[in-house]
Amino acid sequence: MPRRLAALLAAALLALAAAGCGGDEEGASSDDVPPGAVAMVGDIEIGSEQLAKQVKTMVRAQRSTGGDVSKAQRDQLETQALAVILTRAALEQEAAKRGIEVSDADVRKRWQTAAKQQLRTKQAQRRFLRSHRLDAILDQFRLQFLTERIHAQIDKQAGGGYQGHQAVTEFQNDFQQRLQDRTTCADGYTAPNCGNPQD
After folding, report:
1. 16, 141 in Cβ contact below 8 A?
2. 179 inside domain
3. Is residue 44 part of a domain?
4. Tally of structural domains, the chain
5. CA-CA-CA-CA dihedral for 44, 195, 84, 102, to nearest 10
6. Which residue segment(s) compose the domain that 127 sits in?
7. Distance between terminal CA atoms of the chain?
8. Residues 6 or more apart from 41 whose CB is under 8 A from it?
9. What's the pLDDT tens digit per position in 56-90?
10. Among 11, 118, 123, 173, which residue carries the largest CB count within 10 Å?
11. What gap in Å lies between CA 88 and CA 94, rounded to an integer?
């Protein structure tokens, strides 16, 4: 059922946004964000075009389930979109640091499995893809895959069971804090906990 898959994808986006972004490296300020960028995660620049693309994707998904998007809703979606992008950048950096990779083939296979389960006919898939961009869907599946593999690595290194579960929980808290510590947003751009130090 297309609505069910759309809801799952929306939930994935919101879960990323809820992971948050914020605070800056000591001494960093919005002045450290280069022209044309809206934020920095470590040394990674987040460009205005990247944010606009993510907002467009989220607006499109919102319209597919509830009609028009008001100015206030669009502003809220921009905040969520920036949080998603910042979390994504940090997650990609974490996976690279740990030597974890996810192939395009793995991502496409997961999408095809989900599509077959939720969108049982080719016609239903075509209808769904008229309101959801495939590259955005694949991106969400990629991030889900990376998260699972990072958690599995941490769990295994801790010995599994209760210790593994605790290690994953500690990682999640630490990851969120490190994301906050490494994130700087340009003036006029906000995301959860993405405030720059006051002068």
Report:
1. no
2. no
3. yes
4. 1
5. 40
6. 2-89+116-145
7. 51
8. 21, 86, 89, 90, 93, 179, 182, 183
9. 888 877 776 666 778 888 888 888 899 889 988 99
10. 118
11. 10
